[in-house]
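Sync notes, pocket subgroup
Present: LS, DG
LS reminded everyone that the earlier model was apo-only. Rerun requested with pantoate included. Inputs:
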Amino acid sequence: MKIVKTIAEVRAQVKEWRAQGLTVGLVPTMGYLHEGHASLIDASHRDNDRTVVSDFVNPMQFSPSEDLESYPRDIQHDAELVEAHGGDLIFHPEPEEMYHKGFSSFVDMSVLTEELCGISRPIHFRGVCTVVSKLFNIVQPDRAYFGKKDAQQLAVIRHMVDDLNMNLEIIGCPIIREDDGLAKSSRNTYLNDAERKAALVLSQAVTIGTELVRNGETDCNVILNQMKQHIQSEPLAKIDYVKMVDAETMQQIPVLDRPALCAMAVYIGKTRLIDNFFTEDI
Ligand code: PAF
């Protein structure tokens, strides 16, 4: 397993693999890898001959008030995890390698990015689409792997690939949870003991929502109100949003008459956490 820092090194390695007729999977990450990322690497390792993991905290997807500086980083730990899960190459560039002086081209998407997280993070998806397009151009993978925890991101990337005729397959992988239900996230490390306990309201709300849907409830307000009531019962929790949207367009729906995504963002103290369920997965 190799770690490289330049685009030229990634291209040279992928060219060599291609010359041998090998397939390539890409797992884009911002590092500080956990079992959620490991499951994406496992999936890529299963489907492809070689797996590239990008490990880059992308400044373009953070607004000035967000946690770019404090975002956790540990490349040594990441390298061990990638190796243990069969990854072949880590691309770990400096920001200057990805965004040279004078960088001024962006991938911007309307509609899908204007709902859910796009409301409180208005520049986020422009940064995600731009860096993910660059990674696709650099690695030119056959497949790329994204977690369903970032459900809106997954929908946005699928849409971008379709809109811009990008020649690869996007694979969405299930949310990986701690034993008590909390969705794995690099940001969970920000939580103190009391907040860690309080954060369980997110996965508990997911359970409440999925149970209602499983029992045949189709009125989105009924489902969302019960989920919100539960979250609001926790004093450390502050809801950013809890919404039911069309799973493809990310637009809000009043009734479950199509595949839907129930998504939430909740502040636990200062930490903003997300969780969700797709009705099709129930
Ligand atoms: O999901 C993430 O970790 C990031 O948004 C991604 C896709 C690696 C782009 O920086």
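DG: Residues 124-139 form the longest helix (16 residues).
LS: The chain is about 40% helix and 20% strand.
Action: DG to write up.
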